[in-house]
Amino acid sequence: MPSPLSRTPDPGPRTPDVGAGYNPAMATFRRAAFLAVGSELLRTDRVDTNSLLAARLLAPCGVAFVEKRCVEDDAGAIAAALSEMLARAELVIVSGGLGPTEDDVTREAAALALGIGLARDPRLEAALLARFRTRGRELPAIALRMADVLDGAEVLENPVGTAPGQLVRAGGGTLVLLPGVPVELEQILVTHLLPLWAAAEGVLTRTLRLAGVYESQVEERVKHLYARFGRERVTILAARGQVLLVLAAAGERGAQELAEMEAAFAAAAGADLYGRDGDTLAGVVLARLGARGWRLATAESCTGGLIGAAITAVAGSSAAYLGGVVSYSDLLKQRLLGVPEAALAAHGAVSREVAEAMAAGARALWADCALAVTGIAGPEGGSEDKPVGTVHIAVATPGGARHARHRFPGDRAMVREMTVNFALDLLRRALEEAG
Question: Are the C-beta atoms of 63 and 91 separated by less than 8 Å?
Fold first, then answer.
């Protein structure tokens, strides 16, 4: 019998082997391939990072990537790549091309490569309609393409986005289609697939989620535990303002060992630990607010509403979140939030005094607590005293004010994203200390 590497790709349609009794939890993967879809990935201004994220997340499941590619938004090119990769690998993961626009053709390409049909799922269609209507928007007809599902595929619900993922077994391999947005790809993998695949390998996993800390700090804090549990059983994933600790254990004592690992690493993480597995920082903050019956308002300058967007991405956020003020100008800081003109003149808009005044002003808008940010996201606007990346964050609660000053690295997008995560984390800590 020829090895997988010696097989010649079949240029014709392939018949998927999808049976009613197929259980993805029983699938065993060793050799995997990754296909990143997007013409922008073939230019100089965008780099594929999803393959690296997937490789780190799937390593504890016994999955090793032996190939990865980037391909343009062309159905024929995608289909050809899928046919070749499925002939050599037991698992092929695709990121991108699942959105609503004309160039999102990954679903059609997968159907072409596998020789199967593509049909609209009424349940997904209804969910899309409901999602748009709750936002006061009509669903464009073209967006219904996101409800098209490959014959025999399992739909992987997207907890943080619109386009779902799909899993289909084809011949001796498995094809998984995932959104190209990194946080959406990560959440689908962590929520739906990692628990199944890790269990199939006899591997149990737990993800500890930390915020307000950097990867190197976490490494220093937990590295003494490697001698006890094994470095190969721990994966550290860095995000912008968040760090994930993925722990793995296997064997007859796997459950017990994982519990011991979780306890040890959680203790090392300390107050930086905000959640586990599928928890989100905004979701944890809203849960803390709900437990106290508090209402939150936000005041944003450099983030331009990104904090409010992160909060309202969580279903049911209206129970605790009143809304926010985006006050880029000093004029609006004064008129909408009551920031004293003297504070702006003496300290500047990017200062502790102004951040705390913004938080106090937002809290005065019938809120129990408030979160405010002001900073210099760049690329211009910095000075020697306040370089680009300088951000002040303030929280106001019934117990008083809390402030943090940061100097974030990176470009404008990175500064803004880190500000969102560090701000939500400061609020989380204030809520926990409030009792």
Answer: yes
- Tens of pLDDT, residue by residue over 313-347, are 999 999 999 999 999 999 999 999 999 999 999 99
CA distance linking residue 399 with residue 435, whole number of Å? 10
195 and 61 in a common domain: yes
Domain with 164, as residue range(s), is 4-199
The closest of 1, 66, 78 to 29, measured between CA atoms, is 66
Per-residue pLDDT, 19: 34
Give the number of domains in the chain: 3
Under DSSP, is residue 30 helix (H, G, I), strand (E, B) or coil?
coil
Share of the chain above pLDDT 70, in %: 93
Residues 266 and 290 in one domain: no
pTM metric for this prediction: 0.66
Residues 47 and 183 grouped into a single domain: yes
State the CB neighbour count (10 A cutoff) for residue 86: 24
Q: How far apart are alpha carbons 125 and 138 in whole angstroms?
A: 13
Q: What is the DSSP letter of 9?
A: P
Beta strands in 54-116 (DSSP E): 64-71, 91-95
| Whether 92 and 141 share a structural domain | yes
